[in-house]
Fold each of these.
Amino acid sequence: MSDRPDMRPHGHAATDPPGGRGRSLLATAGIWVGAALLLAILPHVFGSGLALTSMSLVGMMIIFALSYNMLLGQTGLLSFGQAVFFGLGGFLTAHAMNALADGKAAVPLVVVPVVGAAAGLVFGILFGAVATRRAGTAFAMITLGIGELVLSSALILRRAFGGEEGITTNRTDLLPFLGMTFGPQIQVYYLIAAWCLVSTAAMYALTRTPFGRICNAVRDNPQRAAFIGYDTRAVRFIAYSLSGLFAGVAGALAAINFEIVNAEQLGAAQSGSVILMAYIGGVGNFAGPIIGAIVVTYLQVGLSDVTEIWQLYFGLLFIAMVMFVPDGIAGLLARQQPLLQGRRLHRVVPFYLLSLLPGLAALAGLSLAIEMTNRLTARAADGPEMTFLYTPIRADSPLPWLIAVVLMAGGGWLFLRAARLTRQAYDEALAAARNKGSGS
Amino acid sequence: MTSDARAPAPEPPALQLAGLRKAFGAMEIIRGVDLALPAGERHAVIGPNGAGKSTLFHLVSGHYQPSGGSIRLRGEDITGMAPQLINRRGLSRSFQVTNIFPRLSVWENVRCATLWSMGYKYSFWRNVERLADARRRTEEILTEINLLDRWRMPAGVLTYAEQRALEIGLTIAGDADILLLDEPTAGMSHAETERVVSLIRRVSEKRTLLMIEHDMGVVFDLADRISVLVYGEILASDTPEGIKANAAVQQAYLGVEPL
């Protein structure tokens, strides 16, 4: 069972017949038209202020996460400093907006993200000239250094970066576009959605160029890439610069959206959160970072409402994903595709639910223990009374601790058993789906 | 008639090594190798394990920097050049240990290997699926190495023999006129070896071939000339008949029994 070969086509490389020209133009156009329609309709379905701001946030994070995956997923480069381009793109955009304010120049707000793109590209070329001289661990360390360098520069150069407060700007001071002043959040949402769609399409198109495919080759085997004529350093350099360009677009949209840019946006925390998005969504699939940006952004918004130690849960989620689902949510979904095609998905869904239940129980136990610990230590001054899942409990009484331990141990044990059964069921369903596929 | 008797070509040799040396610290692995391959020759390098055959290939293909001596490709000095620069000048190599792009499909493996020579380089504005010439060439290569029906599979899941065939496919896809094949039949069954030999014979037509090979049947079947490398030095370089008759070679490598 375990030697089952991995037959999933990787990315989009294996879906085109040799000699064919891939999916029909109509089908390709259909996906993008569908995405555009979805983005247009969303604010009419979820029209609350909170929904609009979070969807705007998701839009820019999708661009940011995809730009990061041009490095990690496509070219195999682990960067710890992607936020540098996001932040610098944002700062330069804010300065540009202030310079263009009050209609001094006939530049509407909608084209301002071009400034962020240019800033990202220029700094990508600048830092890339240093960082991409090396690959692997050395590259990762250099990007970490660049991140620290830029962050400390931002705090020192107060005039350019505005110190701790940052640089503020006012998007409504620029020329309106088609009657839109970009005062109301819904207009900003549409601006972000349009840029998100264009950037996503551009980054997808990039994966289908000779350069995009060579990035994948360099990721798989840089040594051999040199022996088929490619300078792997040049490939890394171009990928890094273009990735900076798109991260700069995301940063520009953030500047427009928040009307303030500060040094936090180019720091290590922001660089770390884009790694989380790409990894949780799945780096081996173009759609992975999109899913990751959506999930992580909503979890950040949602969890921070429920618990003050939400970052701890993020750490746990990240570790769990890396350990058990290294190909991310997109990889998990991609593995269901052959079952769906072979009409065998219904055989495994009960097993998924079967493992989900004890999994959730174990998670609840873990969360209870974490929250009670937090109550007894960091928030000891507030006393032991607390509520967990709408239930009032006392963190210093033994019963909730006993429940937590039982849930963790029992749920964990049952989960591991259920997971084994699920894997068996999956393998059987996959074999059946394949047999059916080859028999027809 | 031996190939030695041919009139010297007016153009420089396809590949010429002069006094080539490589040392790792105090260990000298290649100790002054002189070798000239006229264009179109099929040349085999044989020698015991540890003689430095693969090191020699690493030097010629740019993977290692030589410690001394020179390498000339059609008269042009390529000593110490980076692998990609040597490859772009028309020298392509395969590896002893399969060295492919495991997560890419078989199709994508071969197509990537065609792209530079087709002039697409780092192009990030063309749709790779619309490159009709790259598609044709990829299909030709896959037909040649008999992997067309595997085109969709990730290269990492192919069988060993299929991966070895793909290894050769990657080497020939860029249309280089000098091929270096490092043990192309290693670990293959008799039938598989025969297939690979006829493949090598086909693809090395009108090309210059330098190959490392342990299977003496393959060597004597394919090679116009054979060089014997022992302890980093060329002991003899001659036609297959000459090598068979050479007493020093017999003692050093082929065993004392006359062949």
Amino acid sequence: MSTHADPDKNERAVARRMLDAFSNDDDVASAAALHAQLAERAEREGLLDVAYRTIDSPFGALLLAASRAGLVRVAFAREGHAAVLERLASEVSPRILRAPQRLDAAARQLDEYFARRRKRFELPLDLQLARGFRRAVLVRLQRIAYGVTTSYAQLARAAGKPAAVRAAGSACSHNPLPLVVPCHRVVRSDGTFGEYLGGHEMKRALLEMERA
Amino acid sequence: MRRPFDEIVSEHGPAVMRVCRALLGAFDAQDAWSETFMAALKAYPRLREDSNVRGWLVTIAQRKAIDQLRTAARAPAASAEPERIDGAQVAAAPAQPDRALRRVLDALPPMQRGALIHRYLGDLPYADVALLLGCSEAAARRSASDGIASLRKVIRKEDT
């Protein structure tokens, strides 16, 4: 072998050696710990605009996100959690970090709901992702009690626009806070379930759970 | 489309950590890392969407490292191994990096040292290395290549 190894090879050897020297075996654990500390410090110093965490549920992983005002988004796995976080970054704030603490109460109450130990949620909500009529619909939705269903037509009337049945349906299908704002309790006038962001099966299972 | 800051931390955190370690040493690196990402989080909503995020972060890290070195220089009475009062929250202390390499790296002329750190630990293209060092891209390449030649001597000596 030549004593003058080719420069690219020299470069690669030095690059690898430097990476080895300044990386650590425990970097993965250490990076996770620093990342978590960063989120805690951001929360303390008022720089955390959106905190998020995921929880397990009988219907798959749920993403929970909260602004400082309250719970701002609940998302099903089928929505793609990464895509949901990107939309939150555009629509609410890009200052988003995984910070489970702010969502402790929401996580606990959802666990209790799935275990049939809770019939209403007591959480501050931030409805900023819904505007105008859609927000009016969400406000009305919050008054539909556990185990009760209503129709899209009744919902439209209650929200102040009796003719806006399709818009009421659209407000439900774009509900940023499913489960907590119970859009699953709205069914078609003919008694069929209608659309649901979490899927048809989930809507039926939720209504059966609440009726039991 | 603005990316959530959490993704920025996951993607660039390890490279920023390597740069902080090379600039400061194992213990102070964690502080510099945290200061860097707090400053970045604060400024992030105003960062232009087409910005080079890695270069931006390493620029902040370099500034924070310099701040930290200045503070340390002003307080020579402080013990070499600062006490950690927030023990429960501190991440696992990193192991001592390769001492021989570190000594040679620290002894290099500043431009060579900076070029190697930003190019190989920050994983930045030479255009960004040049911006960080305030020189031309060609000069950044030359500095890196001179630095490589010096480090290569240490590695070769150990390998034989």
